[in-house]
Each structure stands twice: as structure tokens, then as C-alpha cells.
């Protein structure tokens, strides 16, 4: 964004803050691409980046009367978008959600053939052990969130603990 675009958006935001509803289109047209680009950079590959940018834009429009017209309008808008991004990250961290983005596993090119064989055998053994569990146990172990299995958080934790105990018992039998 160049300085002229920034000033144009700021003037439109000042007009909107002062009650000129005709400035809405100009503010939207100026801020939307900037907020969307910012959120996409802050959350690369996140499937809800566009929704989060929309949420930030709605918050900007709802709070436009709080806008201090002596300050930079774009910076104020990006500050609100930043708050929305941080809020999403905190929510995901509290829920311990797994990212919906595809996982990237680093390939250790310096690993010895023996190490690669051991890792392959361990993965196979784990898959077989998980296969011996009941379907309900597998669902609880493979879910990262209680909503997936429709349980309260306390019930999910208890079922997860019991499923882990069963998995340990199967693993010990394999190892014996």
C-alpha cells in the first residue's frame, strides 16, 4: 500500500467515524484487501483466514465511532485484525487443536538405514496395536477435541485415560 492509498483510506474512515455512511464503500474497498493479505500472512495456509478477516472488518465497522481521527486509520484497523489473529491462536492453544494445515514432516537424510527400519517397525507396531483397540477407544485417542466424540471434557479425559491404559496393555503384550 502506498502513502496515497493509506491517506485515502484514512480520510474515508474519518468521514465514516463522523457519520457519513456514504464513506462505507470506500473504507471497505480500501481495507478489505489489506486486512485479508495481513491475516493470510499471519495465518499461512489457515482455512479460516478469510472468515477471520471478515470478522475483523465487522469489528472495525461496529467500533468506527471509537476511532481516534487524529491517528492513522489503517494502523488502527490492522491493530484490530492483529487482536483477532491473536485471539484465534489463544483459543486454538487452549483447546489444543491440531492445525488443519497439512503436516510437514522433516526427512532426516542423515539417518542410518537401521534407524529408518526401526522407525518403520515402530510405526507398524503402533498401527497394529491401535487396530486391536475397540472403535470407541480409537476414536477417543485419535481425536484432539471433545466435540469430535460428543463428550464433555471430563468424560473425554477419563475415556482417553482408559483407552491409553488399554493401549499400554496391548503394547506390553507385544513387547513380552
CATH class of the largest domain: Mainly Alpha
Helix content: 55-70%
Q: What is the CATH architecture assignment of the largest domain? A: Orthogonal Bundle
| Secondary-structure element string | HHHHHHH
- Point out poorly predicted stretches: 98-107
The number of distinct helices, counting runs of at least 4 residues, comes to 7
Which outline best applies?
Answer: elongated
CATH topology of the largest domain: Rna Polymerase Sigma Factor, Chain: A
* Total DSSP E strands: 0
Oligomeric grouping of the chains: single chain
Strand content: under 5%
Question: What number is the mean pLDDT?
Answer: 81
Structural class: mainly alpha
Largest sheet: none
Gap between N and C termini: 65 Å
CATH superfamily of the largest domain, please? RNA polymerase sigma factor, region 2, helix turn helix motif
- Count of spatially separate domains: 2
Rg, rounded, reads 25 Å
Q: What would you note in describing this structure?
A:
The protein has 176 residues and is mainly α. It has seven helices and no strands. It folds into two domains: 3-95, Rna Polymerase Sigma Factor, Chain: A, CATH 1.10.1740.10; 128-175.
Amino acid at each position: 500500500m502506498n502513502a496515497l492509498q493509506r491517506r485515502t483510506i484514512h480520510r474515508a474512515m474519518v468521514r465514516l467515524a463522523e457519520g457519513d455512511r456514504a464513506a462505507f464503500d470506500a473504507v471497505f474497498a480500501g481495507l478489505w484487501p489489506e486486512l485479508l493479505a495481513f491475516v493470510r500472512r499471519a495465518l499461512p495456509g489457515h482455512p479460516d483466514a478469510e472468515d477471520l478477516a471478515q470478522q475483523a472488518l465487522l469489528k472495525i465497522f461496529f467500533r468506527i465511532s471509537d476511532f481516534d481521527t487524529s491517528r492513522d486509520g489503517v494502523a488502527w484497523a490492522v491493530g484490530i485484525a492483529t487482536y483477532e489473529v491473536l485471539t484465534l491462536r489463544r483459543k486454538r492453544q487452549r483447546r489444543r487443536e491440531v492445525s488443519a494445515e497439512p503436516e510437514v514432516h522433516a526427512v532426516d537424510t542423515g539417518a542410518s538405514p537401521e534407524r529408518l527400519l526401526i522407525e518403520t517397525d515402530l510405526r507398524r507396531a503402533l498401527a497394529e496395536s491401535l487396530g486391536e483397540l475397540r472403535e470407541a477407544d480409537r476414536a477417543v485417542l485419535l481425536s484432539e477435541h471433545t466435540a469430535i466424540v460428543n463428550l464433555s471434557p471430563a468424560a473425554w479425559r477419563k475415556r482417553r485415560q482408559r483407552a491409553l491404559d488399554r493401549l499400554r496393555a496391548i503394547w506390553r503384550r507385544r513387547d513380552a
